[in-house]
Design a protein that fits this description.
CATH topology of the largest domain: Aminopeptidase
Number of domains: 2
Number of helices: 12
Strand content: 15-25%
Number of strands: 18
Low-confidence stretches: 229-235, 252-257
Radius of gyration: 22 Å
Distance between the termini: 34 Å
Structural class: alpha+beta
Order of helices and strands: EHEEEEHEHEHEEEHHHHHEEEEEEHEEHH
Length: 392
């Protein structure tokens, strides 16, 4: 995979966080960013169908939000290797504003809210300091130069751990993005220094340079009492979360009397496994997965129910059997590293524990005994579904 080199060295922005991050001001810089996006989203991730706005002739990925956006990027040896886009609401409307319930953030909305998107890092630099530099520079610019109070993202489930680590919080149920996949709305409260310090966000030292205030955190929690604060237990609360796990998913006398992913796990193992995930709420009718979606996350139903349409089912007809609390879905893509082979839709308001695929992969190294139990349970679930001719 190659990246587009810039012929001229652009000026760096004034930032205390990184000397490598620049703010694109020229057409050449922006085209280099669009080409890096194309290489990652289209060529690497196979997103040609989802991203109809891509231009194969120019090998660029751009859309209407790029025109008024702030484009930050990292340049190494004359090459664009990472980029991110920030849009300010005062410059124009965002996509899917109703799904983010942004008007409930007034009076900060519309003039003091932003949206982050199109975060791209070259494969060779993933896991390095580049992502941190890029994110911190964007945060610093937002809090110091544009006086932003809230930043929003539509987060793919696999990226929830990353953005939670930065300080973003799940505050409302997920939704199906009209262009892409099921996403989860998350928000960053710029001035909530106490929270950023508590979770050890890399943004905390930058935010601490500004006056401390709980005003925006209080606004978030007054409008969205179920905001997760970036923690696993989510809106359920810790006691309710463990009650669900023990009485509905783990306890052999529970109403869910069949094998589940958590079967035969000790409590310390259960806590370690669930620490790899995030709780997300869904509304009735939400299509959490669609056939052909990318992603390897495993979804554990904590509460509610879902229905499935598989490859061999006629378009428009649904599997008669519902998935209920204790069931999982997404395990086929996790095991095969392929695309989703079925559509899964919530039939009522529900709660999911989304387990991060990379963390599950890493579990083999850090706790092989637990990993063996998990994969045995997963294999038994798949085998049972094959036996019962439920091909999903």
């Amino acid at each position: 995979m190659t990246v587009l080199a810039l012929k001229e060295a652009p000026a760096r922005i004034s930032s205390g966080t990184s000397k490598n991050v620049r703010l694109a001001t020229t057409l050449a810089e922006k085209e280099a960013i669009y080409r890096l996006r194309y290489q990652v989203y289209i060529e690497e991730m196979g997103g040609g169908v989802r991203h109809s706005e891509a231009d194969p002739a120019k090998r660029q990925l751009r859309d209407e939000l790029d025109e008024k956006a702030l484009h930050f990027y990292v340049c190494q040896q004359g090459e664009v290797v990472a980029c991110v886009r920030h849009n300010l609401r005062r410059d124009g409307p965002f996509e899917c504003e109703d799904s983010f319930a942004m008007q409930r953030f007034a009076p900060a909305y519309p003039n003091q809210v932003s949206m982050t998107s199109r975060l791209v890092v070259h494969p060779k630099l993933r896991g390095t300091h580049v992502l941190k530099e890029l994110a911190c520079t964007g945060f610093e610019y937002g809090i110091q130069k544009t006086d932003m109070r809230f930043d929003f993202i539509d987060c793919h489930p696999r990226l929830i751990p990353l953005y939670s680590r930065l300080g973003y919080r799940i505050y409302d149920p997920g939704f199906r993005h009209p262009k892409y996949v099921y996403v989860v709305p998350m928000v960053l409260v710029f001035h909530d220094v106490d929270y950023l310090e508590r979770i050890k966000s890399p943004f905390a030292p930058i935010a601490a340079q500004r006056p401390r205030s709980t005003q925006d955190r209080d606004l978030l929690l007054s409008q969205f009492p179920d905001a997760t604060h970036g923690e696993l237990m989510s809106e359920l609360g810790e006691s309710e979360f463990w009650r669900l796990l023990r009485t509905r998913l783990v306890d052999p006398t529970a109403t869910v009397g069949r094998l589940c992913l958590f079967s035969n796990l000790a409590e310390d193992q259960l806590k370690l496994l669930t620490s790899l995930g995030n709780v997300v709420r869904c509304r009735a009718g939400d299509p959490v997965l669609m056939r052909g979606d990318p992603g390897r996350e495993i979804f554990v139903i904590l509460d509610g129910s879902f229905r499935v349409r598989a490859d061999d089912v006629r378009e428009g007809s649904w599997q008669a059997k519902s998935l209920i609390a204790g069931d999982i879905f997404g395990e086929i893509a996790f095991l095969t590293n392929g695309l989703r082979s079925a559509a899964v839709v919530a039939t009522e308001d529900s709660s999911l524990l989304i387990l991060n695929a990379r963390a599950l992969d890493h579990l083999i190294a850090i706790d092989p005994t637990l990993a063996a139990k998990i994969f045995r349970n997963m294999g038994a679930i798949v085998a049972t579904r094959m036996r019962d001719s439920l091909h999903f």
